[in-house]
Amino acid sequence: MVGFRWLWWFGLAAAAIGGASGGDVTYDGRSLIIDGQRKLLFSGSIHYPRSTPDMWPSLISKAKLGGLDAIDTYVFWNLHEPQPGQYDFSGRHDIVKFIKEVQSQGLYVCLRIGPFIEAEWSYGGLPFWLHDVPDIVFRSDNEPFKIENEYQNVEKAFRDKGPPYVRWAAEMAVGLQTGVPWVMCKQDDAPDPVINACNGQRCGETFVGPNSPNKPAIWTENWTHFYDIYGNITKIRSAEDNAYQVALFMVKMNGSYINYYMYHGGTNFGRTASAFVITSYYDQAPLDEYGLIRQPKWGHLQELHAAVKLCSQTLLYGLQTNFSLGARQDVSTQFSTRSRQLAVKLDSPEIWEECDEVIPVFDDTSLRSELLLEQMNTTKDASDYLWYTASYQQSKDSQSVITVQSRGHVLRAFVNGVLIGSGHGIYRNTSFTLETTVTLNRGVNNISLLSIMVGLPDSGAHMERRAAGLQTVSLQENQVLKNLTNYSWGYQVGLLGERLQLYTEEGSNNAQWNNFNSSSQPLKWYKSKFDAPEGTDPVALNLGSMGKGEAWINGQSIGRYWISFLTPDGSPSQIWYHIPRSFLKPTDNLLVLFEEEIGNPLGISVDTVSVTKVCRHLSDSNPPPVASWKRETLNENKDNGRRPKVRLHCPSKTKISKILFASFGSLSGDCNNYALGSCHSNNSRAVVEKACLGKKMCSIPWSYKNFGGDPCPGVPKGLLIEAQCQ
């Protein structure tokens, strides 16, 4: 019996691995209780394998500075047990090291144990070998499989087997006697004492509430953004909407625990992204893909957390009374601009070498079948690629129409070594048909069809029944249709270059490479070397000149790329691909690409990423920063403690080098789009430059005296400053 090692539920593991001192964790109808004290907790999801160990301390530190009390993560079974009995807890997979880092910084850990996790992760975190366990039915009440997450989404598909499965899961979890509460995400009927929780964007409006008066209101996934897929335009969720929903959840639902999904999304390295999900994950989160603070989202939520915690005891133990604060309460926080700077050009043909991927023919294959095999069950997730090959005898030269129906995701069709056409599906509609005219020669014709997956599915009922790859193949010649579906087919799992490990130093050195030749031949391997950019800024690979494929740095995959799949506005879904600093050596870093289409590697560059501009806008109606509300702050500075301020803060190792704009007056717009108004203090720039130039941070109080008086009495005024960080 397999699949019983871990459960899916979301647990607050404070007693064992939470804060520095641990503690007993229980709950009542108001909140979680730690060491006998009710707690209002803000948590953020940071997935350890979507970043690197050298990034973890900084990510956790920035989360804590942002006002979080806990870090949430899934456990990724298919990383830790890729084959039965073979375990991996090294490098990015070292969950123990990650949790100890959280503990060392004094935060709690919220563990979503899995192993079914969804999470836009390949196969929802399940290792593919589970598919081959006899009589297995994923996500159902059967002996081989009892592991779950967000089950209510699919429960109805299993009819009478769904509810008993939920009850069994709850009883088994509670029976483990872990000493911490258990939570079922999106399970309104979670059996006692398991807490039912809300996932979504607007749980302040949509949550049905705890299913018992003795359970607290918990929000396990407050989406800070939306995961991106190839071909779709990025959807942005504003900081204001996110914060408003948190406040509404706390007031309307008496919410006491909110987890931001994601607080840092990170990178889907290698082939870990699920079907059609791009390599960058939740880049619009408060901490972006590279771990940089994204403003204004991070700062806006920081102000919210600080305000809530100032009155946490009243919220947790007092009687609730609602009253209006007015039509709108603005929060002033810093905006930042993230930029990429060219560090290394790779535009010289002399630094590139190439190697053609071999297009197999039927006689080269050892795996044979008289029908079209399903792709996932054939590759066992060893590769995105599966070759279907056939040898077709033709009596004379002729023009024929070949039609291929595929269940996804991408198809490259070759006849006699020549590309005759390509096609692909889309997210949640992966099936498509490729129909094209082909010239068949007299004699034997080699048909080679490369079926490509862009990630395994990650959700839904009966994942074990999902199918991919080719469904039907036919040839039509002179009105005669020949069905090749039940034909003699030969198969090759993966690419020859994958088998030779051309992306590693050893595999690359053992292969025969040719000088770069800007030909129009698809299916090519490219390699080059470069030195790491100086400094500590994050590094990204600009692949805007390529088509579709995968990239490796020193043998480590930085993920799939698909530049040619454009969004409706004509833009690629992703151009820059994160290269963690820990992947790099000071010099001679090996870059290897497998390009399926016809890309131009001479357009590739290695760039650095940094916050280069900061901006802040303050109107005369803005409240002062929450930090100034504290009694000790008021005592320190009685004159300016409660006065609104414009505070600018450059990232680590940079200072304010230039004031790009400064105006105290009736300006129009905000940090996204601004202009001088009808009145303006002429000394605005001089005042700001004196206070800020050469400093990492500066603070300018709202004061007529600072700017030589009121430039336009009786007119609403604002103060907006944009500065360059260098």
TrEMBL record:
EC number: 3.2.1.23
Any Pfam family: Glyco_hydro_35
Ranges where the SUEL-type lectin domain occurs: 640-726
Entry-linked Gene3D superfamilies: 2.60.120.740, Galactose-binding domain-like, Glycosidases
InterPro entries: BetaGal_gal-bd, Galactose-bd-like_sf, GH, Gly_Hdrlase_35_cat, Glycoside_Hdrlase_35, Lectin_gal-bd_dom, Lectin_gal-bd_sf
SUPFAM superfamilies associated with the record: (Trans)glycosidases, Galactose-binding domain-like
PANTHER family per record: BETA-GALACTOSIDASE RELATED
Protein family per UniProt: Belongs to the glycosyl hydrolase 35 family.
Protein name as annotated: beta-galactosidase
